[in-house]
Amino acid sequence: MSTNNLAETTAIETVAGVGTVDLAKSTVRDLNQALHDQHDEMNIQEWEVLNPKGHHNIAVGIDQKLKIDIRGPAGYYCAGMNKEAEVTIHGHTGQGVAENMMSGLVRVKGNASSAAAATAHGGLLVIEGDAGSRCGISMKGVDILVKGSVGHMSCFMGQAGVLAVCGDAGEALGDSLYEAHIYVKGSVKSLGADCIEKEMRAEHIEELTELFERAGVTDQDPRDFTRYGSARQLYTFKVDNAGAY
Amino acid sequence: MCGIVGLYLKNDKYESQLGQLFTPMLIAMTERGPDSAGFAVYGDAVDEGVKLTLRHEDENYDWAALAKDIKSKLSTKVDWFQNSKVAVFKVETDAETVEDYLEQNHDDVLVMSSGKSIEILKEVGLPERIVEMFKLSEMKGSHIIGHTRMATESAVTMAGSHPFSTGLDLCLVHNGSFSNHNRLRQELKRVGIEFDTENDTEVAAGYLTYRLQQGDSLNEALENALKTLDGFYTLTIGTKDGFAVVRDPIACKPAVIAETDDYVAMASEYQALTTLPGIEDAKVWEPEPSKIYVWERN
Fold it and tell me: Where is the Glutamine amidotransferase type-2 domain (chain B) (predicted)?
């Protein structure tokens, strides 16, 4: 065990090449700085975060191909703005996990609170438990796979990407949807404005199959899912309204 | 913002450590509410009569003289102890008699709570200071709810701090804000509900008091509250035998619940639950909007 010279002032250690940060001893700011420093000097690719204990903003703003394991429950905005990194939370997460993610993979082993992957542009978020309300709100290209259920207003104003739910969906699913694709295996409490059930065609089976593969999910059959999408009847879809500007 | 926390014990395993377990939970919510803090603890119940939490501005107030006065004037037995600016009085008569007597003869004494087992303790200041002031870590009991306040709708005062008493052994803590509290306060005043502050949560507490007076069960009162209260809220309601949690239909204000064989704990954020025994293996989830959750001992 040797102390990493990148962060002598913090309790960051490297064990068998894995950077280890214990949040019982270091601050989240120290952790995130150490992860951001990898931008300049890519010498530690694997990281382990101990005692996260629901702290907010863990592993936010990573822009390198790092592998980060968070050993316990995280608070708000965990892995927010993630780019390229593979972040696994071995526990539950608070609001806004992987919010505005650009690329990479974020995996939550437990449940996630509301606004998971809000506004995210790319990458993959896998939630192995349930997600709270507004999962994938205003998603802009991220793919989200929830093995449990999602809460109300999920995929609100979803613009692009895929939200696949292996359990049930809460009220007002896909309200004011643009072009995001929604697949739900279980029941949907209610559909939001302009969201309708759509036919599962071959390309949708293919899209889900590929998503399950990327997410490492082997116990789901795409044919059990129902597709939902935009009816394209709202104001924004009417070309005549373009004349107003 | 504000932080709310609650801990309800399903059995007597941790009853002697209730305050000790709850202290770090309340302090963990300091970032969400550094202005004032308070808690309602349920335990040490009286079999006969009523238990009141009384407060006086003067820390050297002569509680012994007050006890003697109540004893002789109301011809009843009085046990009491002091805790900082607050004193807990156990009086062998009904709550109304004592409260009326205090209002007419000792109007400088404020009744914080009344019931069989509830004690409400709250003050302005950092949660850490308030738990120390009231020696929370030494308290025993079956359940407790608490609040750390970041004031938005009214001034930072003791009276504007939570929990708010809503009746015998009942109280309320709130994270959020109500948008129809002014109109609702006027309506409630017309039917005889009294208010001490301009605080929005006091209106919600007053509304519940009113509904319960009308004969609603706790569940019915909360169902009516969901229809009547407009705004953002997560509410935790302390009852004699447990607590209830309700979130508004949009559920913007956070809440997380953890349950094991020994307890149910709720908090605004998971951070407040990390010090509980067995939390690693607890069932942890987010309560659904517009759903009334109640845990009570039979």
Answer: 2-298
- Kindly list the catalytic residues of B: 2
Q: Is the pLDDT of residue B197 over 90?
A: no
User: Considering only CA atoms, which of B118, B100, B122 is closest in space to residue B55?
Assistant: B122
Distance CA B263, CA B279 (A): 10
Secondary-structure class of domain B3-45+125-296 per CATH = alpha beta
> Which CATH class for the A58-244 domain?
mainly beta
pLDDT by residue (tens digit) across A193-236?
A: 999 999 999 999 999 999 999 999 999 999 999 999 999 999 88
A3: pLDDT strictly greater than 50: no
Distance CA B199, CA B260 (A): 35
Helix (H, G, I), strand (E, B) or coil at B98: helix
Interface of B with A in 264-293 (CB under 8 A): 269-274, 280, 284-286, 288-289
For the domain made up of B47-115, give the CATH fold.
Alpha-Beta Plaits (3.30.70)
Span of A77-86, A165-174, B158-167 with lowest mean pLDDT: B158-167
Domain borders along chain B are 3-45+125-296, 47-115
Chain B CB contacts of A133 below 8 Å = 251, 289
Of residues B252 and A202, more confidently modeled: A202
Contact residues on chain B for A130, CB-CB shorter than 8 A:
285
B289 cis-preceded (ω within 30 degrees of 0): no
The domain spans of chain A are 58-244
